[in-house]
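Work Package 3 (structural annotation) set out to generate three-dimensional models for the target panel prioritized at the project kickoff. During this period the team completed the workflow that converts sequence records into discrete structure tokens, so that structures can be stored uniformly alongside our sequence database. As a representative example, we reproduce one entry of 758 residues exactly as it appears in the project archive.
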Amino acid sequence: MPRPTPSHRWTAGAVAVLLSVLAVGAGEAAPASAASTASWEVSQPGASGICGGTRATLALDGNGRLTLAASRDCTPALDPGQLALRTTTTDFTQQLEFVGRSDRSIVDNYTMLSGKSRERSRAATISTFTFARGGVQLSVVVRVSQSGVAFRYVLPAAGTVIDDATEFQFPADTLITTAAYAGPHETPWSTTTVGALSAGSYEFGSLLRRTNGMAVQISEGDPDGTFSGGGLNRWGASGFEIGLATASIPVAAGGMTPWRVVSVGTPSAVFQSTLVDDVARPSRISDISWIRPGVSAWNWLDGYESGQASLSQQKAWVDYASSQGWAYSLVDGGWKGQTWVPELVDYAAQRNVGILLWVHSADLETAAQREATFTRFRDWGVKGVKIDFMDSDSLNRYAWYESTLADTARFRLMVDFHGSRLPQGSSRTWPHLLTSEAIRGGEFLGDRTITHVAASPFTRGALGGTDYTPLGFQNGKPNSDAVELAATVLFDTGLLLPAGTRSAYQARPISEWWMRSVPVVWDETRLVGGTPETGGVVARRSNERWYLGAMKVGAPGTISYSTSFLGTGPWLAEIVDDAPNGTLRRTTQLITAGSTLSIPTAVANGGHAVRFTRAVSVPTSAIRIRVQQSGLAVNVAFAGTANGDAIVQWPASGDTNNYFSLLPLGDGYVRIVAQHSGRDVVILDAGASPGAKAIQHDYGNPAVTNDEWLLEDAGAGRFRILNRHSGLYLTVTDSEWGTPLRQMPYRSGDTLQMFWFG
């Protein structure tokens, strides 16, 4: 960004232009109306009383200077700060006169493919204020909802913007968790006070917490490629002003800036806010059937360039991804010039794995380059791209982002932006944008502090899909192994790219179990506890299951929180944390929703990950188990009594090979025992991969839990049957008589893996 400190706010050329503008203005009389003060209020729909809900207050002082303040439930969130632009012809920081106002209310219902929640309904009041100086107009569009305030500028006449003079003001004792501005947005996050913060430029996404309990996060939203990005310049005694990455920005008549997004509320409300998505344009992709969020193998740290150039290594990673039930495998920098990519794509497709390819932005700068590259990728059958090294928020780069997103959508290529701008709601407009880096994540080997790790979910993570690359167990890291698993919940991302090696995963089978289960698409997000200084506790719901990630900065202790987010009733908590020797361990607890869960941290900078499933009441006598989709009964084939006989679906009857006893194991799991043979339903050879068959066998070695099952409540009297060992679900593949039951990854709404008693 060209203006790193307030003393270098403008380039020499911009200053010269501005001085000429001010010289002209100095000879003009101020408009009569500008000498009079005035104020206007915009409140969220349904706001009650004189100050309830979220409100924005605009005010024009006697010098014609426009300011904006924001509050929530009568409590100040944003102190009055200037709203203004400067162009080459007009300085809108003073001598403004009010021209007019218009208002409208909206209810915006939309669906996301990734992010904090899928289905969203947002009500907002949108007010457009028009001001003028010397006959030249500037409009300010203000949008107020429960989540906060957003505003953008509109230039009714064409002009060239040379400065965004918007200010954000706070008391000096306000805590701020922030990071120094840099193009790739990979500097570390830490906390100080606004008054103690040194001069310089800082990141959008900074989180401010006032002593009155209000939290504020400042970001920008809905860039359309016609305006520059930037950051926050430290300004004045305790404020900030927007600094643009491009010093001179031509704007067409009716052109507008991105939204300046100010999320306000309690810290949990700000974390859970989707305001940056709410202000974005609706999806520009009509057919989204090809966009499929998922987990991808990523093996850059397993050999770097030489590993990416090796077909045998890439096939080995495809095999591993397939064994884990992961949707993709990403080939990073190093494959360019190799001729084997089509062979790898075919090899992966046979194993239900899609291939993603890394590409340098330098190879995609022009429309012709993109057309040629994406045509080749499409013809090969590549599913998506990781585009790297943009490293700029300039006007030209923002225009490139918009063109590149349009082009990748046209070629049906999902996108991961690396070395990129911060999220700005673009995943709503372009839902194939599944994640972005813009963070100092797991690939920074030995170059992350625990302060940064703890703060990142509250700042960068709260903005949108985060390519944090967790699970780099083999790398230098400031936190425990359990926190690496917790990071899959602390951050959301539509494309989860774990950073470990196969040997590191295989040395930690509990991590493999977790990664076969954790979703990447969420229906609900809750900040349950914690702070940027101490570490967060975040819960996310996917359909009827809840997942939680927690960490604690510092010495071993205990992390405690309410489980009220679960609603009501009994639940099973499956907990992965750190053993005293630093290895991962897995335990279970039966809990009641609303109770306090307290989990010790056995190591410094430790944490845990939890999967919550609603418990099913288990019948006390033998019963038939029916497949929801077909109505057929789970059955031991041909009423066989030997070890190894297949478990299939078959028409229900009174035969005893249709009946099973469910024997509780005391921790929520059960044995499923065939009534006629006395043998258990197990997964063949203790397989952990998708597709492994279910058979009957003697209940065996307690260290191998392929014969233990969890009945997960799926609602409406239905349940899923989860294998303890693999973390996969008992499934039939069709509705035919005699179809064997296998274990498969969770599939939302799939009645082929739902059952009922009867």
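Confidence is low (pLDDT under 50) at residues 1-34.
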